[in-house]
Prior knowledge:
CATH architecture of the largest domain: 3-Layer(aba) Sandwich
Strand order of the largest sheet: 11-10-9-12-13-15-14
Number of strands: 15
Mean pLDDT: 92
CATH superfamily of the largest domain: Vaccinia Virus protein VP39
Number of domains: 2
Order of helices and strands: EEEHEHHHEHEHEEHEHEHEEHEHHEHE
Number of helices: 13
CATH class of the largest domain: Alpha Beta
CATH topology of the largest domain: Rossmann fold
Amino acid sequence: MTELSVSWIESGKTQTARWQSVANNPAPKKIITISDTLRADAAYKLACEGTAMLWRGDFQNAKHLSQAISRRIDNRTSKPKAVKAASKGGLTPKDQFHLYRKSQIERARTLGMLLVELSHDYKLPYDRAPDVQTACEHAYGKTSEKDRIVLSLRELLGVIGAYEWHKKGVNITQLDATITPSYGVYSPVRGEYIELVNNVPLNEVTVAFDIGTGTGVLAVLLAKRGVEKIVATEQEPRALVCASENIAKLGFSKQIKLVNANLFPPADCGLADLIVCNPPWLPAKANSPIEHAIYDPESKMLKGFLNGLKNYLSLKGEGWLILSDLAEHLGLRTRDELNAWITSAGLEVIEKIDTRPLHAKSQDKTDPLFAARSKEITSLWRLKVAKIKANN
Length: 392
């Protein structure tokens, strides 16, 4: 999390505050104060030019201004001229994906130019402002600092939304329980991969590893299915706390051992009869720590799991790789490449079990990536160590 100082001129005096950004966005170099009198067109122009605007006015009106800026971003990208430029020359799915990512990054940067202030104890000094203290403590932790804080309204709204999910939880049908996500930890809202893990038979599985456990949902599912010992690994501090809370809340602390590790657990955990991994599905650059749940630069985690798997499996053990083929439809990875990585890792495929996603974007024809999303298949690849062929 980025914590730097920012300064601006207000009422003829230099003011300073602590800059806060979980996404590690750089502190803005130029800040002006604005109020309800600034029109949305002018605010949008300032944001595009790189001028950050610190809000001084009614909090609900700040949200309205953010929505107005968002509409102007959408209008710019949906104008006939922009659409024609994007389609000119028959762009490949890969080109379309990179244009989409570029527009999302630019959108985030522009909306991030509208700033709000928090007191050192996470209180908003605005009329009609909600109580965000508990939500901010959940996302940022309690602080002993006495400096006031400046952050983007976009990030604050994300913090508030994440805390609402945290309070509500995500109902997991296969567990007949709720999993509680935390800010910055991928929420298990796409249930098809959970259903895949729930339906595959467990053949003599006593010990299992869950690699990159996140909220802990797959580790808990394996425990509920009767696996006696599960080692769940994770290296992100927020995810470690989140998984620990979910595992304890659902009563599986005795079956599940949570380990801070990058991919596989240490040698003293022994070998596993089953190793499950649900890596980020798209091999692309992550532009913030939170995006690492979605993007796996250069397929680093996927390759790391495949290359290390045979060293951690028991004699008849299996590895379960849960992976969408969206990257293939976007031209970011080919099936031949994936098969080659499996083979070069000394593995072979026992079975591939497929399902179609049911999430909203797969049905949304207005989504820029609909052509690829509509073809997406999520698969559970059952892998084992390949037999060494004897020389004739």
